[in-house]
Description:
two-stranded antiparallel sheet; three-stranded antiparallel beta sheet; 2 domains; single chain; alpha+beta; Membrane-bound Lytic Murein Transglycosylase D, Chain A
Amino acid sequence: xFVNMKDATVNGNKKNVSARNAEVMKRLYQWLCYGLFVxxxxxIMVGVYSKVGMQHPQSNVANREYVVKPGxxxxxxxxxxxxxxxxxxxLFQLEQEVPSDARIYPGEVITLPSP
Length: 115
């Protein structure tokens, strides 16, 4: 539908140009609302499925091993591998993995607790 602005006709029918513009704006608004709805649903679905994929039972998470490097401390290792767990709690669990003298040496392999 082409609008002839000179005599304000639409396809040979006399119509008010402002009414036609209002109709176009209404349709644009509807399409915008539909588009936003589709995008919102897509984001919700992505969020739901990403959370489902991230849930792992604690029993299936294997312990990791770490080779101590020069300059490493139990605290620095705990900071690096705690995965969002409370630092003090993870450090305590890490200390349980080290022999009683609580010293670590470069090249030593220690087992990291599960997060």
